[in-house]
Design goal:
The complex is a heterodimer of chains A (331) and B (327). Chain A is of the alpha/beta class and 331 residues long. Chain A has a domain at 5-93 and 173-246: Rossmann fold. Helix content of chain A is 30%, strand content 23%. Chain A has helices spanning 54-61, 84-90, 111-121, 127-140, 157-169, 187-204, 215-221, 239-244, 249-257, 297-301, and strands spanning 5-18, 23-38, 43-47, 69-74, 77-78, 94-97, 175-179, 207-211, 224-229, 232-238, 307-310, 313-315. In chain A, the strands form two sheets. In chain A, strands 6-7-8-3-9-10-12-11 form an eight-stranded mixed sheet, sandwiched between helices. A four-stranded antiparallel sheet of chain A has the order 2-1-4-5. In chain A, helix 3 packs across helix 4 (127-140), helix 3 runs parallel beside helix 5 and helix 5 (157-169) packs parallel to helix 6. The radius of gyration of chain A is 21 Å and the shape is globular. In chain A, 41% of the residues are buried. Chain B has 327 residues and is mainly alpha-helical. Chain B folds into two domains: 48-83, no CATH class; 118-326, Orthogonal Bundle (MetI-like fold). A three-stranded antiparallel sheet of chain B has the order 2-1-3, with no helix packed on it. In chain B, a hairpin with a 2-residue loop joins strand 1 (51-54) and strand 2 (57-59). The longest helix of chain B is centred in the middle third of the chain and has 37 residues, at 118-154. Classes of the chains: A alpha/beta (331), B mainly alpha (327). Chain A binds chain B through residues 59, 62, 64, 87-89, 91-92, 94-96, 98-100, 103-108, 117-118, 121-122, 146, 149-151, 154, 164, 167, 171, and chain B through 2, 5, 7-10, 218-220, 222-230, 233, 238, 241-242.
Chain lengths: 331, 327
C-alpha cells in the first residue's frame, strides 16, 4: 500500500537580499533535501529546535510555500506539479492547525464564517446547510452549538484552538499538519487538545504530521518521530525506540536536554558546545560536525546519508550504530 | 441556566470607544447636520414655496426646476397661499437694489454685490463642498486600496512597480498639478472631483500596502490559503476588512483636505463655474469688498473652517477608536 504522503528530496531555499538594490547575497537553507513517508493513520512527530525548518517543511507539504526542488506525493499524486484548480481540490484532503490560536483566526469573522469557510470555498452554497455542519463540528471538538455566532476574541486560547481544529476538520481531510498546535497553550489545556486530537484520529482515521519542539508531547502522541537539524532529517524511528535508543548524537543531546519528572534520576546531560551555525552558510560535510562531541575528519568532508540501521530506524551519521552510545535512559 | 454573553462585534466596539470622546461626537453631529442641510437645501433656501395652494389646488413648487411664476407677487392675491423656505431667496436670485446689505432681519447673513442672499448661497454651496469631498476621496480611496492591496499582497515585482509609482506621485506638488490640469480642462464640478481623486491615492496606497505586508504573514491568511480560497477571496474577504480602519481614518482627513482644495481652487477662479454657489467662490467674490462687507468673507470662511475642523475631529476620534492599544 502506498504511503499517504511521500516526500522526496524536498528543498526550500529562501533568498537573502541586501544592499540598496536588494541583490541576492545568499540563501537560507530552510529545508535541504528531506525525504520521508507518512503511512495512513499514523502520527509522525517532527521535532527539532526553532529555526531548523520544521514549520517550513509542514507548509511545503501543503504547498503553502513553493519548494525550490523536490517532490511531494499525496496518495501517489504529485502535489507540486498539479495546477491551481487541482490543488484546490486537493486541499480538502489535507489541512493544517496553527500554533498561535490568536493570529490563526480572522478577528473580523465569527465562528460560523471561520469554520464554514472551507465548506463555502468547496462549493457548499447553502447557508443553512453550512451552519448545520458548523454546529456539528463545534460539538465534535467540544464546543457548544451556540458558539457559532461569537467572535474569536470572545474565546480562551484553548477554545480558539478547538475552533482551529474544527476548521481543519470541516472538509473531512485525510492528513492534518499540526504545526506546534499545542505549544502556545497551558499544560492542562495542552493535554485536553492532545486528547481531542487523538480521539478525532480514532474516529475519523486521520493521519497527523505533528510538528513540535516539545519532546514529551511528541513521544506521547506519535507513532514515529523524525528529528530535524538545520533543514535535514538526522534520525527517523519509532517513537519508543528513539526515546530509548537514539543513534544520532544530535538526538541524544536533544533528549538529554529534556527534563524528566523523576527526582531520583541524576540526569546525564550531553551538553553541546557552540551555537547553531548560520543556515545561510551551513557547514560542509555533516551539518552537525561543528558541535558534535564525536566529530572526526570524515564528518567535516563527507555528508552522511540516511542509513537504515535497524528495521524502521535510520539515522544520518557516519558512526551511528558503530559506537557505543553515551546516552542512557534510566527508566 | 446558560450564561449569556453579549456578542459585541468589532463595529460595536469601535462605536463604544468613539462615543467616549465627546469632541469627536460633536464633530460627527456637525458633519451629519451638514449632510442634512445639503440634502434639504431646496427646502431651506429658495424663492419657490415648499407648498402652495392656487384656487384650492395644492402643489409643491420647490420641486419643479424652473417655473417662472413670481410667487412673491402671487401670494398677495386673495385665493393663493404658500409656505416659503426659511430663507426665501434662491442662491442665484439677483436683486440689484438690495446689493451689499449687511446681515439683518431680511437677509440673515447679508447680500453680496449682486444682491444675492449669502445664507442661501452658503446652504446651496454646501452641496458642492460635501460632494467634492466625498466623491474625490471615494475615487482615490478606491484606487489606493486596490493598488496598495496588490503591492502588499503579491510583493516582488508588482510591489516594486507600484511602490515606485507611489513615490513618483508623492513628489508632485499635488495642488499645482491639479491647478495645471484644471487650467486645460473645462472647470466643472466633475472635473474637480476626478482630478483630486486621481492625485490623492498615493497616501492611501502606502497605508494599505503596509497593512497588507503585515497581515499576509499572519496564520489566518495561511489558513484561508490552506482551505483553498482564491487570491481574490483572501485579499478582499480576509485581509481587506482587517486593513480598512486606517484607510477610513485617512479618508476622513482626506475629505477635509479635498474640501479645502476645492475652496482654494474656487478662490483662485478655477472652481465650479458661476453662478453655481460654492464656499470658495463666495470667498473669492468677497475679495473686492473686504474693506466694508465683512459678512462676505467671514461667513463662508467660518463654514469652511467648521466643516474641515469637524471632519478632522471625526478622523481623530476614529483613529483613537480603532487603535486596539487604547482598549
Amino acid at each position: 500500500m502506498t504511503p499517504l504522503v511521500e516526500v522526496r528530496r524536498l528543498v526550500k531555499h529562501f533568498p537573502v537580499t541586501g544592499g540598496v538594490l536588494l541583490r541576492r547575497i545568499g540563501k537560507v537553507h530552510a529545508v535541504d533535501g528531506v525525504s520521508f513517508a507518512i503511512q495512513r493513520g499514523e502520527t509522525l512527530g517532527l521535532v527539532g529546535e526553532s529555526g531548523c525548518g520544521k514549520s517550513t517543511l509542514g507548509r511545503l507539504i501543503l504547498r503553502l510555500e513553493e519548494p525550490t526542488s523536490g517532490e511531494v506525493l499525496f496518495n501517489g499524486e504529485d502535489v507540486l506539479s498539479c495546477s491551481r484548480e487541482d490543488l484546490r481540490c486537493m486541499r480538502d484532503e489535507m489541512q493544517i492547525i496553527f500554533q498561535d490560536p490568536f493570529s490563526s483566526l480572522n478577528p473580523r469573522k465569527n465562528v460560523a464564517h471561520i469554520v464554514g469557510e472551507p465548506l463555502l470555498v468547496h462549493g457548499m452554497r447553502s447557508r443553512r446547510e453550512r451552519e448545520e455542519r458548523v454546529q456539528d463540528l463545534l460539538e465534535v471538538v467540544g464546543l457548544r452549538r451556540e458558539h457559532m455566532r461569537r467572535y474569536p476574541h470572545q474565546f480562551s486560547g484553548g477554545q480558539r484552538q478547538r475552533i482551529g481544529v474544527a476548521r481543519a476538520l470541516a472538509l473531512n481531510p485525510k492528513l492534518i499538519v499540526c504545526d506546534e498546535a499545542v505549544s502556545a497553550l497551558d499544560v492542562s489545556i495542552q493535554a485536553q487538545v492532545i486528547n481531542l486530537l487523538q480521539d478525532l484520529q480514532e474516529e475519523f482515521g486521520l493521519t497527523y504530521l505533528f510538528i513540535s519542539h516539545d519532546l514529551s508531547v511528541v513521544e506521547h502522541i506519535s507513532d514515529r518521530v523524525a528529528v530535524m537539524y538545520m533543514g535535514k532529517i538526522v534520525e527517523l524511528a519509532d517513537s519508543s525506540i528513539i526515546h530509548t535508543n537514539p543513534l544520532h548524537p544530535y538526538t541524544q543531546a536533544l533528549l538529554s536536554a529534556a527534563p524528566m519528572a523523576d527526582p531520583h534520576r541524576k540526569p546525564v546531560h550531553t551538553i553541546l558546545k557552540g551555537e547553531v551555525p548560520s543556515p545561510i552558510a551551513p557547514p560542509t560535510g555533516c551539518r552537525f560536525h561543528t558541535r558534535c562531541p564525536y566529530v572526526e575528519e570524515v564528518c567535516r568532508e563527507h555528508e552522511p546519508e540516511m542509513r537504515e540501521l535497524a528495521s524502521g530506524h535510520s539515522a544520518a551519521c557516519h558512526f551511528a550504530g558503530l559506537r557505543p552510545s553515551l546516552f542512557q535512559k534510566t527508566v | 441556566m446558560k450564561p449569556r454573553i453579549k456578542s459585541r462585534s468589532y463595529r460595536r466596539l469601535v462605536w463604544d470607544q468613539f462615543r467616549r470622546d465627546r469632541v469627536s461626537v460633536l464633530g460627527l453631529i456637525f458633519v451629519l447636520l451638514l449632510f442634512a442641510v445639503a440634502l434639504a437645501a431646496p427646502l431651506l433656501a429658495g424663492s419657490r414655496p415648499i407648498i402652495a395652494s392656487v384656487d384650492g389646488e395644492i402643489s409643491f413648487p420647490f420641486l419643479s426646476g424652473n417655473s417662472q411664476v413670481a410667487w412673491k407677487e402671487e401670494v398677495k392675491s386673495e385665493n393663493v397661499w404658500a409656505v416659503f423656505p426659511i430663507v426665501p431667496y434662491g442662491p442665484t436670485d439677483i436683486e440689484l437694489e438690495a446689493h451689499l446689505l449687511p446681515p439683518g432681519s431680511d437677509h440673515y447673513l447679508g447680500t453680496d454685490d449682486r444682491g444675492r442672499d449669502v445664507l442661501s448661497r452658503l446652504i446651496h454651496g454646501s452641496r458642492v463642498s460635501l460632494s467634492v469631498g466625498f466623491v474625490a476621496v471615494s475615487i482615490y480611496a478606491f484606487i489606493g486600496v486596490i493598488l496598495g492591496a496588490l503591492a502588499g499582497y503579491y510583493g516582488g515585482r508588482v510591489d516594486t512597480v507600484i511602490s515606485r509609482a507611489i513615490e513618483v506621485m508623492m513628489c508632485f506638488p499635488t495642488f499645482f498639478l491639479i491647478l495645471t490640469v484644471l487650467a486645460f480642462l473645462r472647470p466643472s464640478i466633475y472635473n474637480i472631483m476626478v482630478v483630486i481623486g486621481l492625485t490623492g491615492w498615493p497616501g492611501v496606497a502606502r497605508l494599505v500596502r503596509g497593512e497588507f505586508l503585515k497581515q499576509r504573514k499572519l496564520d489566518y491568511v495561511m489558513a484561508a490559503k490552506a482551505v483553498g480560497a482564491s487570491d481574490a477571496r483572501v485579499i478582499f474577504y480576509h485581509i481587506l476588512p482587517n486593513s480598512l480602519a486606517p484607510v477610513l481614518v485617512s479618508a476622513t482627513f482626506g475629505i477635509a483636505g479635498a474640501i479645502l482644495v476645492e475652496s482654494s481652487l474656487a478662490y483662485l477662479g478655477f472652481g465650479v463655474p458661476p453662478p453655481t454657489p460654492s464656499w470658495g467662490e463666495i470667498l473669492s467674490q468677497s475679495k473686492n469688498y473686504i474693506d466694508f462687507a465683512w459678512w462676505l468673507t467671514v461667513f463662508p470662511g467660518v463654514a469652511i473652517f467648521l466643516t474641515v475642523t469637524a471632519y478632522n475631529l471625526v478622523g481623530e476620534g476614529l483613529r483613537d477608536a480603532v487603535d486596539p492599544r487604547l482598549k
